């Protein structure tokens, strides 16, 4: 069993524990914003969403950030190189476009 979301009759399994449907539905299960699958282990919280670390990528080159700084524009995150090419210089403090003000 994968321990992620296996069903056993009327019970569901999560992290090797069985839950009835109503209790399972109340558990806060993080779902990756990119692949829509449950997140077990490490997760990245950014842009008001959760991501598998390998799925949190630059909106232009699609390279994972892997702990590097990212820059926001709208609902997307970008590596520094592509943020500067697309939107100009970011604010030093919040990493959002300094030109948007």
Describe this structure as you would to a colleague.
- By secondary structure, the protein is an alpha+beta fold.
- The protein has helices at residues 21-26, 80-87, and strands spanning 7-8, 11-14, 17-20, 44-46, 49-51, 71-73, 76-78.
Short recap of the structure:
The protein is α+β, with helices and mostly antiparallel strands and 101 residues long. The protein is built from 2 helices and 7 strands; from the N terminus they run βββαββββα.
Contiguous helical run count: 2
How can the largest sheet be summarized?
A: 3 strands, antiparallel
DSSP summary, beta strand count: 7
Unreliable stretches (pLDDT < 50, length at least 5) are: 1-7
Strand order of the largest sheet: 1-2-3
Spell out the key features of this protein.
disordered N terminus, alpha+beta, two-stranded antiparallel ribbon, 14% helix, 3-stranded antiparallel beta sheet, single chain, 101 residues
Which SSEs are present, and which pair or pack?
Blueprint: E1 7-8, E2 11-14, E3 17-20, H1 21-26, E4 44-46, E5 49-51, E6 71-73, E7 76-78, H2 80-87
Antiparallel strand pairs: 1-2, 2-3, 4-5, 6-7
């Amino acid at each position: 069993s994968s321990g992620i979301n296996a069903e056993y009759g009327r019970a569901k399994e999560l992290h090797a524990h069985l839950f009835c449907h109503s209790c399972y539905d109340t558990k806060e299960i993080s779902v990756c914003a990119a692949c829509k699958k449950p997140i077990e282990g490490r997760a990245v919280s950014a842009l008001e969403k959760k991501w598998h670390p390998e799925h949190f990528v630059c909106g232009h080159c699609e390279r994972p950030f892997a702990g590097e700084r990212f820059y926001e524009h709208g609902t997307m995150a970008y590596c520094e190189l592509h943020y500067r090419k697309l939107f100009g210089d970011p604010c030093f403090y919040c990493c959002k476009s300094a030109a948007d003000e």
